[in-house]
Each structure stands twice: as structure tokens, then as C-alpha cells.
Predict the structure.
Amino acid sequence: MKKTILVLILFVSTFKSTSQDASVEKSVFGIQTGFLGIWIHNESKLSDAIALRSELGLDAAIFSDNFVGNSSFIMVPALTLEPRWYYNLNKRAAKKRRIDGNSGNFISIKTTYHPDVVIGSLADNVTFISDISIIPTWGIRRNIGKYFNYETGIGVGYVHYFEEDNVILTEESGVAINLHLRIGFRF
């Protein structure tokens, strides 16, 4: 029994583990734009496959209060924290595909806060209410050349609206959808 344990320990100590050769980068900083906004982001390495994305941006909205064509355009600051698990880095590295700039498939939990600050003009009878959303998301990021990349993602989650004085909400929380397609530049 002692010989078996000794052989097993010796075998395990000399065995080279190749379970996680590929890794996310230590820090990725960039800017991205999409159909409705612009964002600055940083991804910091937490482990070989997990990065914490922090993001500051402006989410845009186009809305109308009637069918006549009276529409408005506003931008709202967005603060986001998003842990991302890049689950296919080893597979991409084994196939000699790029993983620089955290290029790969990911699963994340996107948490975004919109304060009640609006850039643009709202009608007197319209109030923007701050909210926080938590959305599990699946997405991909791929490189285009050395500095450019594109990213797409989809997810369904939860949104909570913060009630203000003199405002009556018909729903205090609900379903939030994250559907994004962005192109970006990595510094």
C-alpha cells in the first residue's frame, strides 16, 4: 500500500498538466461603438479564464410619444461591471486561432447601472428613472487585424427601476434584454 501511494505521488509530481495553457490577458483597454452608444472598457485578469470587465459609456435611446413622428434622442451614462468566463481559449489556441485581446467565446453576468442623468432634452411630462440590470449573457469577441475587434452578445435578465418622488411606476421591475453588436479599437 505504501509503495502504491509513493508511486502515485511520484507519478503525479512528474506529470505535466496541460489543462490551462491559454490565458486571458492581464489587462485589455479599448473603446467600442455600436448602434446605440459608445463605451470605454478595461478587462482585468482574475484567473486564466476569467476577466473582470469594467465599462463606462453612453447608451443612446430613440423614442416617440405618439405616432405622428415627434421623436426624441437621448444619451444616458452607463456604468457596467461584468465578470466574463472565456471558456474556449484552449480550444482556440490548439487550433492556432488568435486569443490575443481576449478573443474568444464568453459567458458573463452583465450588471449595468443607469443614473438619472440625461444628455439631451426630454419633454416636461417625461422623466428618466435610474435603473440597475443583471443579465446573464453569452457572447463572442474576434479580432480584425492588430487593433480592431468586433463583439456580439445576447442575454435575458432582470431590471429594477428606482422609484422617485412624484412618479408612479406601473411596473417596478421586469425583464431586461442584452442584444449587442459592437466594433472596437484596442489600445
In short: The longest helix spans residues 2-14.
